[in-house]
Amino acid sequence: MSPETRRRGSALEAAIYEAVLEQLEAVGYRKLTMEGVAAAAQTGKAALYRRWNGKDELVRDALLHVLPSPEEIAEQDDIRADLMELLGHYRDMINSTSGAVFQVLKEEGQDSRGLLHSAVREQVSGPLKAMLHQALQRGVERGDVRPEAATREVALVGPSMFMYQCVVETPEISAEFLRTVVDDIMLPIVRPIPDEGQG
């Protein structure tokens, strides 16, 4: 009995999603085909078209299947802990897909507003950027972030560094890179400037 006749439901769906991520890493978004995914998942192409109209819908659902939602991240007591927690979650998302999500967005084009951009923006990047902005605002209230640094533009710095690293340098984000972004880039930007007249 062939694999495609044995697997049904969630087991088949999981195999298809795994095959999508493998194909994204191997050939990229533009060269990914429904036929290639079906072969990698050891199923028939018809099984894909019964669920999805085309590769955009398939890739979107595969990414949403593995992308964690940042909504349950706990608030921390200082800005460094907040940044490490939030950007650490972003790092886990990137690494869980071997950077495939950013490769997809890169190949779609910077001006794209397609299904994949919308899925990632609504599921991950939008909520995360909002939470980073909120963390900066809490830092202002505590006194560990200077007021003029609590902007949406500053909140984009960490995610933008991660995206550049993933697309240009390596498909995974290391713990050391996370620490560098937080300690050597973000904190000097947001922390209050010492009064030059003191000391």
Total number of beta strands: 0
Largest sheet: none
Return the string of H and E elements: HHHHHHHHHHH
Poorly predicted tracts of residues: 1-5
Q: Give Rg in angstroms.
A: 20 Å
The average pLDDT score comes to 84
**Helix count?**
11
Q: How much of the sequence is in beta strands?
A: under 5%
Give the SSE layout.
Blueprint: H1 3-6, H2 9-27, H3 34-41, H4 45-49, H5 55-66, H6 79-96, H7 100-108, H8 115-142, H9 152-155, H10 157-169, H11 175-190
Helix pairs in contact: 2-3, 2-5, 5-8, 6-8, 6-10, 6-11, 10-11
What do these coordinates show?
The protein is mainly α. Helix content is about 70%, strand content about 0%. It has helices spanning about 5, 10-25, 35-40, 45-50, 55-65, 80-95, 100-110, 115-140, 150-155, 155-170, 175-190. Helix 2 packs across helix 5. The longest helix has 28 residues, at about 115-140. The chain is elongated, with a radius of gyration of 20 Å.
Jot down its keywords.
Arc Repressor Mutant, subunit A, single chain, 199 residues, 2 domains
In short:
The protein has 199 residues and is mostly helical. The protein has 2 domains: 3-65, Arc Repressor Mutant, subunit A (Orthogonal Bundle); 68-190, Tetracycline Repressor, domain 2, CATH 1.10.357. 68% of the residues lie in helices and 0% in strands.
